[in-house]
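In practice, a research group might receive sequence data for several interacting partners and want a quick structural hypothesis before committing to experiments. The following worked case mirrors that situation: the sequences arrive first, and a predicted assembly follows.
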Amino acid sequence: MRVSKKEKRKIIEDFKKHVSSGKVSTFRKYGMQFIMGERSGPYITDITGDKTLINCHSNGGVFNLGHRNTQIIEALINGTQYFDIGNHHLISIQRARLARRIAELMPGDLDYVVFGVSGGEAVDLAIKLARGYTGRHKIISIKGGYHGHTGFALATGDEQYRAPFGPNLPGFVQVPFNDIEAAKKEIDENTAAFIIETVPATLGISIPSKEYMQALRQITHDSGALLIIDEVQTGFGRTGRLWGFEHFDILPDIVVLGKGLSGGIYPITATVFRSPMEEFFRKNPFIHVSTFGGSELGAEVALKVLEISSDPEFLEHVRHIASLFASLIPPLIDKHKNYLKEFRQLGLMMGLVFHEEKHGVIFSKAAYDVGMLSIYANNDRRVSQLLPPLIIEEKHVHEIVEKIDLAISRIKYYSAIFTVADFVGRLLP
Ligand SMILES: Cc1ncc(COP(=O)(O)O)c(C=O)c1O
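A structural hypothesis for the assembly, expressed as tokens:
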């Protein structure tokens, strides 16, 4: 889809008047008035056709399989021959098929699934289940973690996202990341659950130690609390394994799936939990409903996503592409050592760590100008998140590395024009 520059201005005006004037003025200020038009594989093109970006943000994993993946579109079209949303109260062929497939692909007795529409909704349900099942109320999360902007999910997050909405809900506590002692101190007989992302993305693609994840598993188990693992970003092969938590040899009690399950085409999310917890819903089968959650059409898409992502060759491909980044980024750190400090990576879950916050933030703008979408992590702005679609090929890796090199070379110039305050909290959350 393409429109003229004049038509583009009209779209921006309509967006400003009827959707968000704040977003329009922010993007105008930084010369980032990009409107997605044509899109394919890892690329998105402005609606005028004037600018193309290689997508290294992928909406946090929504576009794991690239934009408008033809297999996914075909699944959706096939699904329309038989299905619609379905009825959220009745027994459903599609929810049964999809839940069985997820259970087959999960380890242990992670055998039950409740579907949702957004990641936040799926996290909310995980917390409801943890409280309902244990009869306890305390929910522990990590400082700088992020689980969504809905009710309970918001309550697990940092104050900057909650402050305008009044005091936090009671029972929610945050502890520092990767700190076993702090977790040990906080988890007690009132704790319903500890919730953590496998790799906290908003905290700057911070990779936990295996020791930490295993300690969390042990401590929660010993105190009768549940361990909720948020795989919204790390699921579906992002880390080179189907589920990110597999790297840590742990069996969570509840796993939250989102973003990538949609294939970038149809929103669908899932809360997966171990068999014993089903007892809570057996007693209360209608205590949680979601009208669109687990739409029968969406299930057709999600089944195709699982088929593609669980293929051993696909996962091998992700690991191969990740190994290319692992060899090509460190020389860039040597070249730009005044700016770039560290490369964080678990498969294609990657982060470029700059020495200074302002450089992490300004890199987002510099990357945009050289044709790459990579966005800083809002809870550690020294880090630019690098999550390209998993289907990229070797040539794309070289293109991305060249663009990173070029963008860093421009940081000095941009630093003279913009201040961090210009960007922070304004550019993108
Ligand atoms: C790790 C994680 N959990 C949960 C969510 C919330 O998902 P949604 O925006 O679909 O509600 C997000 C969204 O960015 C996320 O990154």
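Before designing any experiment, note the following. The first strand starts at residue 36 and ends at 40. Residues 425-429 have pLDDT under 50 and may be disordered.
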